[in-house]
Amino acid sequence: MSIKQNLLDIRARIVRAAANSGRRIEDIKLVAVSKTVAIEGLAEAYAENQKVFGENRVQEWQDKYEHLAADCEWHIIGSLQTNKVKYLNSRIVLIHSLDRLPLLEKLNSEGEKKGGVWNALVQVNVARDEAKAGLEVNEVRDFIENAVAFPKVKIKGLMTIGALNATAGETRDCFHQLRELRNSLQTVKYPEKIQELSMGMSDDFETAIEEGATIVRIGSRIFGHRSEK
């Protein structure tokens, strides 16, 4: 199937999942994960009105973003090294992988240098998967309250990745736990509203939507399977 057909299918499935859970389609954002996808593939998606893209690596984002229109929205969804922060600019709308104090400190100092503010999501290792980054559930509240001291970073919500070999029930429970954590943070001492939930990928995005995802990250279902660089 073509990228056009894949997007039509994905969008239809998002609509159905939203309807099944009594949610508004306007409250769910589709991030097309463009890792290792050539510019031509992104351009094809853009022609079908897909304007939100997610990259795992800063270098790859640098190689791509100037080739697409200025109205594209770019997200960094992969693990972000502190030594790569200096290469980011205002084209980055959201960082999904804020997972440690040194990264928070670096983003803040770079924001001071550049006169900008980074929007970010706190990555939470709900599944307790040793292969994945992220804060433990019980660390998140303190981390966000301490982030008040870093005004060049605005925490907008939470992100998680389901365990690789989890059952459908375990994945749903993981997403449910993140939603419950988000809800519990409405009383957190932090000036921003903790609202966004980035969860769900190609194989589980419908479950994520049913459990409250506001952002789904879909790559292979749009662009096809591709090998790692």
Automatic annotation (TrEMBL):
Check the record and name the InterPro entries matching this protein: Ala_racemase_N, PLP-binding_barrel, PyrdxlP_homeostasis
List UniProt keywords, sorted A-Z.
Pyridoxal phosphate
In the record, what terms sit under GO molecular function?
pyridoxal phosphate binding
Record domain Alanine racemase N-terminal: where: 24-226
What the entry lists under CDD domains is as follows: PLPDE_III_YBL036c_like
Keyword Metal-binding annotated: no
Co-factor requirement: pyridoxal 5'-phosphate
**What top-level branch of life does the organism fall under?**
Bacteria
N6-(pyridoxal phosphate)lysine modification, residue list: 35
Q: What does this protein do?
A: Pyridoxal 5'-phosphate (PLP)-binding protein, which is involved in PLP homeostasis.
The family classification in the record reads: Belongs to the pyridoxal phosphate-binding protein YggS/PROSC family.
This one is known as: Pyridoxal phosphate homeostasis protein
What species was this sequence derived from?
A: Syntrophobotulus glycolicus (strain DSM 8271 / FlGlyR)
User: Lineage, please?
Assistant: Bacteria, Bacillati, Bacillota, Clostridia, Eubacteriales
